[in-house]
Amino acid sequence: MKKIAWITDTAAQLDEAFIEKHDVYVLPLSVIFGDGEYKESIDLTQEEFYDKLRLAKVSPKTSQPAIGEMLSLYEKLQSEGYDFAIALHLSSGLSGTFATAQSAAEIADFKVYPIDSLIGSFPMVKMIETGSELFSEGNEVEAVVATLKSMAANSHLSFIPSSLNQLHKSGRVSGTQAFLSNVLNIKLVITFEDGKTVMKEKVRSNKRAKNSVMDALRTDMAAGSVPEVAVNHCNNAADAESWKNELLREYPDLKVQVVQLSVCVGVHAGEGTTGLSWVAY
Predict the structure, then answer these.
(1) Strands 255-260 and 186-193: what pairing?
(2) pLDDT digits (tens, 9 = 90+) for 167-183
(3) Which of 5, 16, 159, 244 has its CA 20 to 30 A from that of 257?
(4) Are residues 195 and 119 in contact, defined by beta-carbon separation less than 8 angstroms?
(5) What sign for the dihedral angle of Cα 179, 180, 186, 187?
(6) Of 279, 9, 255, which Cα lies nearest the Cα of 151?
(7) For residue 178, how far is the Cα from the chain centroid?
(8) Element holding 168 (H helix, E strand)
C-alpha cells in the first residue's frame, strides 16, 4: 500500500487527533499586525488574536505560506518515504496558497496533487476525511482527486458578521455603510460562490439573516444530501451553540458540530461572526 501524506493549511482548523489519524501536515497562514507577523496556531492562539484585534487601530493583514516552506515540506515527505501527497488548500479566490502549491509541485522532485477547495473550514475537513477513506478502500489517486474536486464544487459556507466594523477597518465596506448598519441593525449574509466570497443578502435583524442561511441548508436537506453541518464562529461559541440547538430542534437526526473559523476570516469578518457550512453529497 502506498504511503500518502495530506497537506493543508490552517484555514481547515484541524484538531490534533484528526491530524494524527489522517497523517496531515498543516502549513500555517499568517496574520501581520503592526508589531510583526504571527503564524496561526503556532505564534498566536485564537484568544490572543482577538485580544490583539480589539486593540488594533489598523486592521492586520494576512499572508500565505512561502513557496520555500512548501518545498521544504515536500523534500521532508520524500525523505520519509511518502509516495505522494495531496495538498488541499484554502480557496484560490481568497488566498494565493493554492497557486503557490501548484508552483511548488512543479519545481519539487516529488509528486504532489494540489487541489483548490474553493472554500475554507469544515468542508476542507470532510474532503480530507473522505479522501482518506477512499484510499483505504483501494481507490487510485486520480479517482480520489476527482471526488474531492466534486466535493469542493458542492460545499457551502455562509456567515453573518456581527457588525460591519471590522469589514470597514479591513477596507471591505465604507464608514458610512458600517455606521448605518449599526444604527439600523442591518446584517449581511456572506457566502462562497465559485471560490469567492460574495454578499448574498442585506437584511434587517440577525434572525432574518440566519433564516436566509437556513433556507439554503433546507434546500439541500430536502434533497437528503447533507449528513452533517458545522456551525462556524469567530470567537463566539455561545451564539454558535445556540444555533446548533436550533438546528437540532428542526433536524433531530442531523450531526452538528461547532467549529472555529480561521483567524484569517476574523481579520475581515470580525469577532462575533457566526455561520453554517456543509457538503452536499
Answers:
(1) unpaired
(2) 656 555 554 444 345 54
(3) 5
(4) yes
(5) negative
(6) 279
(7) 25
(8) helix 165-169
